[in-house]
Specification:
- It is a single chain.
- The chain is of the alpha+beta class.
- The chain folds into 2 domains: 6-79, Arc Repressor Mutant, subunit A (Orthogonal Bundle); 89-147, no CATH class.
- Helices cover 49% and strands 12% of the residues.
- The protein has 6 helices and 6 strands, in the order H-E-E-H-H-E-E-H-H-E-E-H.
- The chain has helices spanning 6-17, 38-45, 49-61, 92-101, 104-117, 130-147, and strands spanning 27-28, 33-34, 65-69, 75-79, 120-121, 128-129.
- The strands form 2 sheets. Strands 1-2-4-3 form a 4-stranded antiparallel sheet.
- Helix 4 (92-101) crosses helix 5.
- It is elongated.
C-alpha cells in the first residue's frame, strides 16, 4: 500500500467502502472491481471528477488497476488483489490470475489447467509452486462444488 499517497489511499478506501441504497454500490468486494463510472462515483460521493480520474490514472500507471472482463462478460476496472483484498485468502490466487490474465473466464481456465497438471504456475511470472497451491486449490474447488459452481471437468 505504500505505492499510494495517503490522500489517494483514503479516496480509494472511501470508494471501496461506500454502500448506497439497494444495489447502487460502487465497489464489488467479491471480485475487487469498480462497478460504477467515474461520473457516477463523483456524483454519489460528492467528489470532483478530476480527483477520481487522477486516482485511477495513478493506479493504472503503477499497475494497481487493470481492465478485466468479469463473470458477466462486462469489462470493469479491477484493483490489484495484492494492494487491497477483503475476501478469504483461499480465493486470492484465483483473483490474482483474473487480474493478470484479464478475464474471469481465463482465470477459470488457468485454475483448471493447474488442477490437471497438479501444480500451480503463476500466470504473470510462470513460476511453479506445487506445495502452496494444491491445498488452496483443493479447498477452493471443494467450496465451489458445494455451491454448484465452476466444477472442474
Amino acid at each position: 500500500m505504500s505505492k499510494l499517497k495517503p490522500k489517494q489511499l483514503g479516496l480509494l478506501l472511501q470508494i471501496m467502502h461506500y454502500r448506497g441504497r439497494g444495489s447502487s454500490f460502487i465497489f464489488d468486494k467479491k471480485d475487487n472491481t469498480i462497478q460504477q463510472s467515474v461520473r457516477q462515483i463523483s456524483r454519489v460521493l460528492d467528489i470532483t471528477r478530476d480527483r477520481i480520474v487522477t486516482l485511477f490514472m495513478n493506479l493504472r500507471s503503477k499497475d494497481l488497476m487493470r481492465r478485466v472482463v468479469d463473470i458477466k462478460g462486462i469489462a470493469r476496472d479491477m484493483i490489484a488483489p495484492h494492494l487491497l483484498w477483503y475476501r478469504p485468502n483461499i480465493e486470492r490466487r484465483f483473483h490474482d490470475a483474473m487480474f493478470n490474465l484479464g478475464s474471469h473466464e481465463k482465470a477459470i481456465q488457468h485454475r483448471e489447467d493447474c488442477f490437471k497438471l497438479g501444480m500451480y504456475f503463476d500466470p504473470e511470472t510462470g513460476e511453479v509452486n506445487e506445495k502452496v497451491f494444491l491445498s488452496d486449490l483443493i479447498r477452493y474447488q471443494h467450496k465451489l462444488n458445494n455451491k454448484g459452481q465452476n466444477k472442474i471437468k
